[in-house]
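Here we describe the complex-level prediction in full. Unlike the single-chain runs in Section 2.1, the two entities below were treated as one system.
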Amino acid sequence: MQSTICALASGQGGAVALVRLSGPDALVITHTLTSKTQLFEPRRQTFCSIYDGKNILDKALVTYFKAPHSFTGEDVVEFALHGSPYIIGRTLELLCQSGAVPAKRGEFSQRAFLNGKMDLVEAQGLCDLIAAGNQSAHRLAMNALDGKLSGKLSEIKTKLTELLAQIEVRLDDVDEEMTPLSTDFITQEITAVLTAIRTLTDTFSVGRLIKDGLKVAIVGAPNSGKSSLLNALVGFDRAIVTDVCGTTRDTVEETLEINGQKIRLTDTAGIRAHALDVAEQEGMRRSKRAMENADVILFVLDSSRPVCAEEKQLWQDIQTQHKRTLIVLNKTDKPSSGKIDLENVTQYTQFTVSCKTGAGLNELKNTLTAPMNEVEKDSLLISNLRHYEELLRAQTELESALMQLTKNAGGEIYAEHLRGALTHLKDLMGEVTPDDILGVIFSKFCMGK
Amino acid sequence: MFVCSEQYDVVVIGGGHAGCEAALAAAKLGAKTLLLTQNLDTIAQMSCNPSIGGIAKGQIVREIDALGGAMGRVTDFSALHYHMLNTGKGPAVHSPRVQCDKKVYQFTFKHFLELQPNLDIMQDEAVRLTTTDNKIDGVLTLRDTLYHTKTVILTTGTFLGGTIHIGTVMTPGGRYNDMPSNLLSKNLSTELGLHLMRFKTGTPMRINARGLDYSKFRLQPSDNPLQPISHFTDEKEQQKRKFLSCYITHTTLATDKILRENFQRSAMYGGNIHSQGPRYCPSVEDKIKKFPEVTSHPLFLEPEGAHTEEFYIQGFSTSMPEDVQRALIASVPGMENASITRMGYAVEYDCSDPMDLYPHLESKIGPGLFCAGQINGTTGYEEAGGQGLMAGINAALKVQGKEPFVLRRDEAYIGVLIDDLVTKGVNEPYRMFTSRAEYRILLRNDNADLRLMPHAFRLGLLDKTYEPAFEKYRALCDTLKNNINAVICEDPDLFPWSAEKARRHADIHHKYEGYYERNKKDAEKLAEVDAIKIPEGFDPSTVRGLLFESAQKLREVKPQTLGQASRIPGVTPSDIQLLAVHIERFRRLKHVANAR
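The structure predicted for the assembly as a whole is:
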């Protein structure tokens, strides 16, 4: 059975991005991201929501091409998404979680060719593409996995191979004279490997932040100074700042570097309970989406006036996001209006800043980048989705092995899961054959005949 | 020179476990077959331990049996002791092992061969293969007789250039007191161009049971009830037979001391042997050298027959000189007063690089030449038998102009064995383990018939009269797999199967259901790439963009399918992607060319 593959099919950086999914499970996987009842008519664009759990990740134009009438000749689904790197990255992650695998270089074209969708002339170009990919990917795999990460992975692989050898040697014990391994010992060994892998997968959130940048949404009531904050952080006038409420109707995005880290700031339209015109309503819809996509929300409040009804409503929305949120009390150059009248607000970190004078901005910057800067230089980080996926799969296998152990299943059963985990590590870093395991067996155990 | 007037399809050289199965299978498929052996009285001889089966090997015997081979049936006929190994673990790794009466085994097998239509047996030694245009066309023997043949199967075991070592004493021999085939070895390497390697194996001493102190042994009785190893043996009748016991003892510190003091006097460590022996079947001196922390190793006493007092001592393989061997025996509890009847020894022999073979076991070097068994770098009667069977089938199919028969890795241990041999090669004698099989849950002892008999009936390896019973059994198994609570009843038409067997199989299947499906799914992916044949005339190593090392490996192995290419160590997924496109391109270009 062919796997179902996915990848970004368009370039990155445009307003619209095309993510392509191809293979026998394309439609099934698509349904896990949209609603189950969503109908997709072949070769018709369908406008629908892409869900990340219960939250809407994006609204996209989805097109289903039924085999063999598609680019690859297989079932294909194409997602026209908004061109945000976060949306693209997250969509691919979700597709992989639902059973797709990241496509190899040239794999769509390869399938197209093998399914008779491409002629020989085109195939030559395809061969060049794969060939170039082969050489460079090989170099890249060597380099990308070089050093500490590859060291750590081979440490994990060795530990797992040795544990598996201990189990396998007993399955293949000809003399039946070997002392069985205790469940406690196996549990302890698997847990150790599992912990080592989890330590790596846990770095993915931060690793990705460092690679793709920390997404910060600046939200607040109209005229609380959101655009001023953006400008103050960026250092020049990027957003239009006026005294008229609702000047920022679109979202304004800016990428900047703070303390050596990439930050992607989004200034949003002020949220008002009763938006005045259609443009403003659309802007506010985007603001909400910016919050949903953000890693950190900066809630800007004007400290010179009391909290208004709109801000209370907005605060409710922010809290339902369950995201890292910082409260920014702006305009501290003006007299304070006193206590902030918001529920639970004392549980959040607050910053008093003046965008005018620049006071308090450094503290805010330091706090923003703290999680990334706290990561030690040269420490191990997983930032590649494929690596992350493989490690997660290995992790799942080990968890299943532990579960089978509690059920007192036989060695041949949890060996299946350990073999599975090893295969995923192998896919990450190169060959592990049964011969590796036998090699360990022969060097460590005295086997009779 | 006498030229035999018979025109043979297949000549099998060597009457060991590989040769016997090869000759039977080829003859069964209708090929006019000749089995050449130096000595008719050592046909199917168990040169080492008196048992058939064991971990993973037991599964191979079941597979041979399901494909119409004789090993399983002869084993049940000569059985002295049954033991299902690994019963403390899950049924996927249960492996049958049977102690046999050596003499009964070999004479029974000889009788099987004699009764087989299309098969001639001749006592003579092959010394040269003759060729025309590099194609095999005949076999010349020591008596200067020429046999014309279309194909030859080499099953030479340890006889090619065999040398026996006991301490520093070296004698020519393929087995103790049996002459080696030195002329043939020379012909294969110098005239045919086979790449010969040198391997080593060994066997322990045999002792007389008279004088043993059984009170110092642990008794290992035969299983009761027992499960016959052959699918065709009457299970109920087999229980009524008389069985012998095996005994377990162990080496002592005194054994350890003797070995240490005499390391330099062993053939292995004294410098006489340079060839590679098996790591998993070490001599007792190997064990002490490599695992000094283990001070006591188990020894198993296995009866050599029902009409002899000789015991085989498993675990005591050695190439020490005679005085040391005598001292070693005296150091073991219960054997203090035992006398040795035959010395243990090491044997060095020529084998041929299995990477020179196609997956159907025909040589890439000489068309019409097939190799099976120890000559391919394996050890074990079962591994030999499995290869012999496949070589016999494929030699016959070749003569009949039919497609080769190759078993996949998810179908049989025999498939794993041959794929490993021809794809990865060997650097030590190869023994099967369950850990070599990635689809272990699929390759079980209890389902060998369901896995392989459909092939056997299709090819004509099994008597058609068994087919209705088999189909009935298969249907019964399916019923139970769909509904474990289904009520089934015994039916004499099921014989040699039974409702009870179906129940046993279904219970095991249910235990592994999720894992079975998982293995199956993985196997389907494999079958897909294995189904992509590398077309005739397509040289994968010329594909631009392949990694240098991969191109080199592909040139060496000459894989038959894309799947086989993907299993070559070092070949990357991108290499395979590239090959897939080029194969399709080649196919289309050829199609275009043919259309013109």
